[in-house]
Amino acid sequence: MDYYHNQQKQLMLWAIDAFEKANVSKSRQFTEKLSRIKHQVSGLSESEYEQSTNLAIAVDDSKQLGETDQNVKFLLHDLIPEMEQIATQTMDQTLISAVHQVKGIVGFEESTYPE
Hints:
Shape: globular
Distance between the termini: 38 Å
Radius of gyration: 14 Å
Structural class: mainly alpha
Number of domains: 1
């Protein structure tokens, strides 16, 4: 796996962790999607992920994302509006930065729908 792809995976995991730890109310669906994305990106089970001490270890380099990569980006794309809402509600700089990183990774643009 190349360095760039590994870097993207680590940024996604960092952003997901930031939102999971945010002390704000989140919908159950939002939380479940975050968890599912985290496990798809890391390639680890929940217990393996919890045992890893940092995000560099949490990314299993032996597992290529391939098709899963597009699925992860699609799921993240759906979560961006709620991520933005939480970030602006809390004005937490970490969350604002996390949203910005996720948008960059998934190629999110404001006008993604045809007019």
